[in-house]
Amino acid sequence: MPTSLHKTRKQISKKRGGEVNALHAKSRDSKRLRMAHARDLRLEKLANARAKKEEPIVDRIEYFYSQLKEKDVSQLELPEVQSLIHNFVHQYDEELDAIKKARRPGRPASTREDLLKRKIDTLEDEYEKGFLIPNVLDEENGKKLLGYEGSWAYIATISWSKVSKAGKVSNGDFPSKGIM
Fold first, then answer.
1. Which Pfam families would you find in this protein's record (predicted)?
2. How many angstroms separate the CA atoms of 39 and 51, rounded?
3. Number of domains in the chain
């Protein structure tokens, strides 16, 4: 996809009859190039922030997609779902233990260790209240999930549900604002 800087550079070179080699520092054309570059940087920053916010949603979709693929089914029972959620919540336990063992006694926790603790605690709290997952308890929705090819638009068509640690299942909304 061409960027606005590329397009602006192309327009200016057409106007000047070839290459853009020498521009005065305060000319209109150089101002257009600076503004186009600033716009590209701003859009890239927003895209990176959006991708970071959507990452937990995509991780959950991919986790449950891989579990359905692995078991070759389109529907799971509640005990299976709860064990999968437990595994998802505690997927960072080994890494956290390794970081704790690597730390010398008397030293404060590393940033990575604090981040992993916070992430696990957040996931545990969410699991207590109701963990948001793609609805794999419904066969029709499970088939939809098996058709997932990696696009964000397809994720919006999948229905979601909340499963609590106590076993309560309720309908959930698509997490458009991100999960964490």
1. Tma16
2. 18
3. 1
pLDDT above 90 for 114:
yes
Q: What is the CATH number of the domain that holds 100?
A: 1.20.1440.170
**107 in a structural domain:** yes
Report long-range pairs for 171-178 (Cβ below 8 Å, ≥24 apart). 172/130, 172/132, 172/133, 175/57, 175/132, 177/53, 178/53, 178/54, 178/56, 178/57
CA-to-CA distance for 95 and 108, rounded, in angstroms?
Answer: 17
Classify residue 144: in a domain, yes or no.
yes
Q: What would the two tokens of residue 47 be?
A: 């895209």
Domain that holds residue 58: 4-15+23-172
Q: What is the pTM of this model?
A: 0.73
